[in-house]
Amino acid sequence: MSFIVKVPTSTVGISCETTRWMKMRNHSRTSSSAMIPRASMATPKIQPLNNSVSNIQIMVNGCTGKMGQAVINAASSAGLNIVPVSFGSEEESGTIVQVCGKDITVQGPSKREKTLASLFDEYPNLIVVDYTVPAAVNDNAELYSSVGVPFVMGTTGGDRDRLYRTVEESKIYAVISPQMGKQVVAFLAAMEIMAEQFPGAFSGYSLQVMESHQSSKVDTSGTAKAVISCFQKLGVSFDMDQVQLIRDPKLQREMVGVPEEHLSGHAFHMYHLTSPDETVSFEFQHNVCGRSIYAEGTVDAVIFLAKKIQSKAEKRIYDMIDVLREGNMR
Fold first, then answer.
1. What's CA 189's distance to the chain center, in Å?
2. d(Cα 189, Cα 9) in Å, to the nearest integer?
């Protein structure tokens, strides 16, 4: 017996044999990282949004990267006001990036706090979006917290416990999520509910996992780790180092079926469960081409956060599950 489950973000399916990957090629695909002193802050003066997203001003840090540029494109299409300044590395300082017909000046690490404070005065509804690098996560969060600017953190990595402590102590508003794809987050939430309500349901089953990402991604996907964690709670014995990472573009094209135009930006995940007697199998697959799914989710997170700030919500730190539960996504 073979049972294939399909979920709305992509599909569910995997096996470690090359032939199984080849059979899945035509399955549906979804288009689609100097310590600043912390300071407690009062609720910032925010101008009324008047239900118009054009009153929301966003600063995208990491605008020289593909994810940052995808967010600017999505935000511009949604009608958000893009601030023409972005923080980057020392090497990028002074660079002018053109996105959506807008010139964005990249500023290096020096005088960041003074610059951000000045921008916050000029743009009182400012929300920062961070798609930088893992090594910058904590320093950046401490900068935003020190100035009192709310932010959406899409960058993965860093010391996550320290990140949350920084935001909690500063009392600013933030959405923090390493996964911004709304449908992928919904799938993960469903997996977590299943793991919580039916622990041990897959006891004795074996698990095979493969995931394919652009060659620049060297580590195992955080999404894959989260899904595997759910399977472990469901009774499956599996070590993270058993994940097969596909990073060779030739294999991605020929074995996984990644379209040529998306080799530089994709996320194909496949999970295969087999019963102890090998008479039952479950396959889970979700394929994402491009970055639009994450960019659109980020824009929804920005709009969500702006509403929470405007309503002076008691809760200050959110994730994408909170954004999904709000139910007001575009």
1. 14
2. 12
One-letter amino acid for residue 58 of the chain? I
pLDDT of residue 136: 93
- The Cα 179–Cα 182 span in angstroms is 8
Catalytic residues: 213, 217
Q: What is the DSSP letter of 30?
A: B
Rounded-to-integer distance, Cα 110 and Cα 248, Å: 38
The Cα-based distances of 114 to 69, 104, 111, 119, 126 in angstroms read 25, 18, 5, 9, 15
Q: HEC string of 50-95?
A: CCCHHHCEEEEECCCCHHHHHHHHHHHHHCCEECCEEECCCCCCCC
Q: How far apart are CA 256 and CA 127, in angstroms?
A: 38
119-131: b or e for each residue (b if 16 or more CB lie within 10 Å)? Answer: bbeebebbbbbbb
Write out the two tokens for 160.
């996550």
Task: Collapse the DSSP code of 254 into the 3-class scheme (helix H, G, I; strand E, B; otherwise coil) and give the result.
Answer: helix
Q: Do 227 and 14 form a contact (C-beta atoms < 8 A)?
A: no
Q: Are 103 and 85 in contact (CB under 8 A)?
A: no
CA distances from 308 to 124, 150, 166, 276 (A): 15, 11, 19, 49
Contact 211, 267 (CB under 8 A): yes
Burial of 2 (0-12, 13-18, 19+ CB in 10 A): exposed
Rounded to 5 degrees, φ, ψ at 246 are -105, 110
Nearest to 64 by CA among 56, 72, 75, 53: 72
Report whether pLDDT(238) > 60: yes
Please give the distance of CA 136 from its chain centroid, rounded to a whole number: 16
In this predicted model, what pLDDT tens digit does every residue of 9-45 receive, in sequence order?
A: 333 333 344 444 444 444 434 433 333 333 333 444 4
pLDDT at 43: 43
